[in-house]
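Task: sequence in, structure out. Protein: MarR family transcriptional regulator.
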Amino acid sequence: MISPAPRDMRPQADVQALPDLADTTEAYLESLQLLERLHRLMLDLVKDEFERLGQHDLTPVQAMILYNLGGAEVSAGELRSRGMYQGSNVSYNLKKLVTMGYVHHERSDMDRRSVRVKLTQEGQAIRDMVHRLFLRHAEGLAMSGVLEDPPLEQVNLQSRRIERFWLEQIRYIY
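Result:
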């Protein structure tokens, strides 16, 4: 008598209970494209605001570093690890921001190799400018009803879940 082939012991999902994988995959890929476009559009909005106000010495990326830095005092490495800066050339942009007088830097007392950075008054003024821009946008979006369906809190929750999944994937590699 022939014995049956070994059975896969992993739990089997009820195929009918799963959403169509092709639709889910397509929606995920569309989300990735939207995230990228939204980020670029946000930088364009900052650029346009700066042009309108005659603020020509900063790039939108540098303005976002100032905005995200806020009142914190952090090391250059922490800028990336805390999600305050998403680019690969953080040292170049920090050097430019220090040179232009928007960021103050000093060596850490604990680790002389590490540099701590924080906003100067000029940097805080730029941060406030970007903050006012975002507040105006939030007001306009709220008045238009765009943020109601689904509620933005649910969209943010979903985004944080995707962020956690991606972080787990990165940690898994190492």
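The helical segments are 21-53, 60-69, 76-81, 90-99, 121-144, 152-173.
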